[in-house]
Amino acid sequence: MIDDGPAYKLQLQRAVKRFEIDLQEWPWPPERATGSDWGTYWRARFEDTLFRVGLGVRKLIEASKLSVEVQERPIGVVFVPARGERFPGAMNQHRIEEFYDDEAARRVQLPILLLCHAIVHSHVLVPTFAGSSHSGLRLESFYLASDRGRKNGVYLVNWRNFVDDLVHAVTLDDVVELLVLRLPDGEELRVPFSTHQGFTDFRDRAISAYRSLSQGNAKFVDKFMHEWQKAYGPASGPEAAGWL
Question: Smallest Cα–Cα separation from 189: which of 171, 204, 176, 199?
Fold first, then answer.
């Protein structure tokens, strides 16, 4: 569990900022990194930073410290579909043009929750760097696909959008209300909000919001509410749930 959500969110932002500052200054790999070339060093730094964010958001969600409003917030990305039935393996996942069709790319909206899921379960993860002696080195974008999603296509994510629309949104998030449902065996459904919901139909609206986040959430909610109704009946008022 995360004891202090705001402090944890700030750490994620600081990790991203540190990466960007170091990248702009364009240092060579540390001398002690024997055998590591320039490209390998920065790919490793990129992956470390990206996984800090992806895993960090997942931990915030598990600890009910990230509101459903931010979890469902859409991020603009480009979806590049697969060319055919072939998809990349571990050794050739970087050969984007071989497996995916840039000419058929289209813009889509991907919720923060699903984007971070794709990061955590990523199979394709290819950064695109650019730079000059004047501006230094910068990360322009990255290709991303989960182990399952790679068979359908990859997402092309603009780095600036990732930082401005995802990292900053997570950092500024403030959970002000929390719905808690608890089964007799101790299993819980916890739904955090960054806006005050009031008490009129609050449980139904909270559950609906949580359920709509992903297919995994929907399956969990359906199973949980089946057990809830078996244990407590169809009551829907404040006496049947905790609202913190």
Answer: 204
> Are the C-beta atoms of 153 and 144 separated by less than 8 Å?
no
List pLDDT tens digits, range 74-118.
999 999 998 877 777 666 667 777 888 888 999 999 999 999 999
pLDDT digits (tens, 9 = 90+) for 159-215: 999 999 999 999 999 998 888 999 999 999 999 998 877 665 677 888 888 888 888
Instruction: Give the torsion sign (CA, 169, 14, 44, 65).
Output: negative
Cβ atoms of 56 and 70 within 8 Å: the answer is: no
